[in-house]
Amino acid sequence: MASTPLSPASPAAAGTTSVAIDLGDRSYDILIGEGLLQDASAFAGLPKSSKALIVTNTTVGPLYTAALRAAIAPHHKQVLDVELPDGEQYKDWPALNQVFTKLLEEAADRKTVLYALGGGVVGDMTGFAAACYMRGVPFVQVPTTLLAQVDSSVGGKTAINHPAGKNMIGAFYQPQRVICDLVTLDTLPQRELLAGLAEVIKYGPIADAEFLGWLEANLDALLARDRTALKHAIKRSCEIKAWVVGQDEKESGIRAILNYGHTFGHAIEAGLGYGEWLHGEAVGCGMVMAADLSARLGLIDASTAQRITALIKRTGLPVQGPDLGADRYLELMQVDKKAEGGEIRFVVVGPLGQARMQAAPEAMVRDVIATHTA
Ligand code: NAD
Ligand code: GLY
Question: Which tens digit of pLDDT belongs to each residue from 127-168?
Fold first, then answer.
């Protein structure tokens, strides 16, 4: 799997590790280290431009904009910033338009570099804004949640939500670099840390049974924010994501396995209204349902499904979904991007450490929903 020493284009302090995303002329590095926001060398080699725009939100901006501004000052004559409202419910057109308005009011040109400073919501929206503004400007991901550091900032999926479906309006658009500063995780609320761990756990069942064992053994250290444990978890997650995205950038095949737990999870998020459950919480619960479905399909045994469920429960994530009614779950899952011709397709595990897409009999899916909702 892709893991390289730092390339000359992206030098950074000792102790910083990197993972390469190998996509030809769209390749880039993910840097993972402590204090990278204070380390100008983590930003070396990135595009220089007259103007830059830091896109952040009202929570993250006051914490980290000043440090990012100082780090990138040598690259740009003028560094602007825009603070979006905080929350999944604002991952929408009006908030996105705030970014375009800022760019146009400031006469930003097509060389302007956008910096996404925040979690997955800010990252997805900034990436989409960068893909659209003047038909494409460069952008850099500076993820500040665990979820964003292990998943959303990597791989070029950008989007906003539509009331009828999550992440339905978007583009594939790769960043120039991903800069993960472990220190930013210090201010992350514990609930958000747990939601990020859901996406970390995901990589075990779908791609690396050994990593699942490592997570079981090191969960307490991760919950206590031990930096060494977090660094390993982030690196391994990014390596697996890099390996998958390197084979299938635009999700015509294997990339869909990264959506393990997401078909049920997206239904929970959309069904309750965005922002009620955190994305990672919904994915965690969705993984419990998808593990049960995998067992019912005979792809793993019941004890393996139980093992996955036990880890999610130990993490402190919900393992029982809201009772939206099976009909509503099915309706919402039909607008999932993995559905084809109205047929719902699930990411299922089997054997442990491998995953694939598969349809399932409706009665079986209804049984799974009934078993795991309350
Ligand atoms: P988020 O962006 O809403 O961030 C969670 C909360 O933490 C927010 O309130 C945010 O302001 C706050 N926050 C962020 N960093 C902080 C810090 N360092 N200190 C204190 N508070 C901080 O949520 P998220 O879990 O990061 O991302 C979820 C989003 O990511 C969803 O919209 C999901 O669809 C998307 N996603 C995208 C991909 C992808 O491949 N593009 C993959 C997974 C998830
Ligand atoms: N989070 C799913 C993907 O990046 O494909």
Answer: 999 999 999 999 999 999 999 999 999 999 999 998 877 889
CA of 65 to the centre of ligand 1 (A): 16
Q: What is the pTM of this model?
A: 0.95
Q: Which atom of ligand 2 is nearest to the CA of 251?
A: 5
Is 296 labeled as catalytic in the residue annotation?
no
With a 6 Å cutoff on the Cβ, whether 246 touches ligand 1 is no
pLDDT number for residue 343: 84
Residue owning the nearest CA to atom 4 of ligand 1: 119
Residue 255 catalytic? yes
Q: Which atom of ligand 2 is nearest to the CA of 259?
A: 2
Q: Is 135 marked active-site?
A: yes
**Ligand 1 neighbour 153 (Cβ under 6 A):** no
Confidence (pLDDT) at 6: 38
Give catalytic status of residue 340 as yes or no: no
Nearest ligand to residue 184 Cα: 1
Tell me the C-alpha distance between 363 and 241, whole Å: 33
pLDDT tens track for 278-316: 999 999 999 999 999 999 999 999 999 999 999 999 999
